[in-house]
Design brief:
One of its GO terms (biological process) is regulation of DNA-templated transcription. With 676 residues, the protein is α+β, with helices and mostly antiparallel strands. 44% of the residues lie in helices and 24% in strands. The strands form 5 sheets. It has a 6-stranded antiparallel beta sheet with strand order 8-7-6-11-10-9, with helices on both faces. The protein has a 5-stranded antiparallel beta sheet with strand order 2-1-5-4-3, sandwiched between helices. Helix 7 runs parallel beside helix 17 and helix 20 packs antiparallel against helix 21. The two termini are 67 Å apart.
């Protein structure tokens, strides 16, 4: 409704139709009083506030009578002269929209948008000003800018980049990190020209992976080599997900050139030593055969035989030296599977001290006798023995060590032949435990990133869906001039926007925990707890919570802000969930058990079911969706505790039985008397 219409209603005291749920029509004055928008009536000559509705009184925080004693210059932070100039512009109808900062009764300065227009009431010329609080919009814009900056920084540090494939326009859009990685000078690239930069022997494989993702939903995760515009060839790992609604593929790029180069060098070196070892063993066996034949032929060759034996010993020692100089384990077997020789690396990898513990024994019974679960592995099913005539390669095979442990290995088997018949085999193997651990760690990190992206996208999508839904409803209600529904739509939109703002702020705060920003130094725990209780005094007094703090004679060494966030989040969490407890209480202290220092925060509130033991530390997890907050507090505590090599857990006997959170900080703990 326009301001001139409001002025007319106020002047002639007309009545409007009753609102839903009211039996009597509302007067213009009642509409003015009860309107949810903040409205001030101002004398343009003096700036005196003539009247204010209930929303304005609640927003500025002054009692109604006190607010009417003020003039607008006392509220507007622009200054008296500048404020009077803006009043004159509004009075002359030279301007209707203004952006100011208003001062509230508690001293806070808030950004506001003001729509002001003159009107006449009973012969008096006044300014009617409708005020909107713009704080949330400014904070949201600032958080968005900071989030984008953090993302660019994270890509630069991690050697990552992300991309979007628009299938409708057949073009890629790359982030700054991806452009720097690929050596591109423009973020948008057509698909055909970009794929020409992939090495030809890998191009078809990548295209097929894209098609499987879009058509069948098969996860997209490929390695390929890419030639940058400057001629540099790099190895990349690319992963992507398909959004059917937008008909787009979103993915990330990771530079794995160093890892792939190391793997190629390792493979080449291993193959060289394998071939060298096999050649040496074959030469050695040939020399032994020749010497044996010479002894039988003639005793007259005894002197020559002694010389040959000396040479043989020298060659044997050289062979042993060569075999023992390799990091790969090497052993030989005959057709029955009896070990004929082994090098030092084989003994070390398998946990034996002397060659006699393997040589002369059935190698299958020693190191290959059982499956990983302990069930028997029959020798007649052993591929190494059954296919001894063939050259074999296994990327992963489990071998048993002397102490009963198992190591994963990659092995190669080369048959030894004499006169066309296979007399045994030479086996080389590598311990791939570290490789598997690295692969598992990479898989775990990828899974963590995938879960993080899913959680963030899921929780951010919900308020966006709400906003989009109510925007459509708002458009319809505006066309129908249904003011009550319009207000309801705006309330839901504002609530969803606040929810998204909380989630983004929580994410930003959580992202900063990965590094210690403050200068680490000694912190007294008792003082840290006291300062935390002061900052939370409003919550504790509001809910009349009694706090008992034990003597905590400990010092911590670390970032005081990060350490303080542990106690603040746990105490604040305990205060939120006191429930209907008539005498709420929080106990703060420390325990020493078996040489381990454990801090605790205990409450007598609503308690926690043990089935939620892991879920409560998950990102955005809230056992009660209606509770305040964004679900970031406990994940933040867990991340800070783990940063100091500790752990956090809780104990609770169930509903209304209270709960107790425990945590350790071994890396930060210092004796009370120790100086920083």
């Amino acid at each position: 409704m326009r301001l001139t219409t409001i002025a007319g209603l106020l002047t002639v005291s007309l009545f409007i139709l009753p609102l839903p749920g009211h039996t009597e029509p509302l007067s213009a004055l009642e509409l003015f009083r009860q309107h949810r928008a903040m409205i001030l009536l101002i004398d343009p000559g003096s700036g005196q506030i003539i009247d204010a509705n209930e929303a304005a009184v609640a927003y500025y925080g002054y009692p109604y009578e006190q607010l009417l004693e003020l003039n607008i210059q006392q509220i507007n932070s622009l200054g008296p002269v500048a404020t009077e100039q803006e009043i004159r512009r509004a009075d002359r109808e030279q301007r209707a929209y203004f952006a100011f900062h208003h001062r509230l009764a508690n001293g806070d300065i808030r950004p506001v948008e003001v729509y002001s227009s003159p009107l006449d009431i009973d012969g008096h010329r006044l300014l009617a000003s409708i005020i909107h609080d713009a704080s949330d919009r400014e904070n949201l814009q600032e958080n968005i800018v900071q989030s984008e900056s953090r993302l660019r920084y994270a890509e630069q540090v991690a050697g990552l980049g992300h991309w979007t494939l628009d299938l409708e326009h057949n073009s890629y859009r790359f982030s700054e990190g991806a452009m720097e990685l690929l050596g591109l000078d423009h973020p948008v690239q057509p698909v055909p020209s970009l794929r020409q930069m992939i090495l030809p022997d890998q191009r078809a494989h990548m295209i097929a992976a894209h098609e499987r993702l879009v058509r069948q939903g098969i996860p997209y995760n490929v390695h390929f080599r890419f030639e940058r515009p400057d001629g540099l060839i790099i190895d990349l790992n690319s992963q992507g997900v398909y959004n059917a609604r937008e008909n787009q593929v979103f993915g990330i790029l990771h530079d794995i050139t160093d890892t792939q180069e190391a793997m190629r060098r390792l493979s080449s070196r291993t193959a060289f030593f394998n071939r060298l070892a096999v050649a040496i063993v074959i030469v050695l066996l040939g020399i032994v055969a020749l010497l044996y034949y010479a002894v039988r032929r003639s005793k007259d060759a005894e002197a020559a035989l002694k010389t040959s034996k000396a040479k043989l010993q020298e060659n044997f020692e050289m062979t042993e030296l060569l075999l023992d100089s390799t990091a790969e384990g090497i052993y030989g077997i005959d057709r029955r599977g009896i070990c004929t020789f082994c090098n030092s690396a084989a003994l070390k990898l398998l946990g034996y001290r002397h060659r006699e513990e393997l040589v002369g024994h059935n190698i299958h019974d020693r190191i290959h006798h059982s499956h990983a679960d302990g069930t028997r592995f029959p020798a007649e099913e052993c591929t190494l023995l059954v296919r001894i005539d063939e050259q074999l390669h296994r990327e992963e095979e489990l071998l048993w060590c002397a102490d009963g442990s198992i190591i994963p290995t990659e092995f190669w088997s080369y048959p030894m032949r004499r006169n066309g018949d296979t007399i045994g085999a030479v086996v080389t193997f590598l311990d791939i435990s570290e490789r598997k651990a690295q692969q598992a760690a990479l898989q775990s990190k990828n899974q963590e990133m995938e879960n993080f992206v899913y959680s963030v996208s899921h929780d951010l999508k919900s308020p966006l869906v709400t906003i989009k839904s109510f925007l459509r409803m708002l458009q319809q209600d505006l066309q129908e001039q249904n003011q009550e529904q319009i207000d309801e739509d705006l309330r839901y939109i504002n609530g969803a926007a606040e929810r998204m703002d909380n989630l983004l702020a929580g994410l930003l705060q959580l992202s900063r925990i990965g590094r210690l920003e403050g200068q680490p130094h000694a912190v007294d725990v008792a003082r840290l707890v006291a300062e935390t209780l002061v900052s939370l005094s409003g919550l504790l007094q509001e809910k009349e919570i009694k706090v008992r703090v034990d003597d905590i004679p400990h010092q911590l060494y670390g970032d005081p802000m990060r350490l303080g966030q542990i106690w603040q989040n746990l105490i604040e969490n305990a205060g939120k969930y006191v429930g209907d407890q008539p005498q709420p209480q929080i106990d703060i202290g420390v325990e020493e058990k078996n040489g381990v220092t454990t801090f605790f925060i205990r409450d007598n509130g609503i308690g926690i079911d043990q089935q939620h033991a892991q879920r409560i530390f998950a990102l955005f997890a809230q056992l009660d969706p209606q509770s305040p907050g964004s679900g970031i507090g406990l994940p933040m505590v867990k991340k800070i505790v783990e940063l100091y090599q500790g752990r956090v857990w809780f104990e609770s006997e169930g509903k209304d039985q209270g709960s107790c959170f425990y945590f350790t900080l071994p890396k930060a703990l210092k004796p009370h008397e120790e100086k920083p």
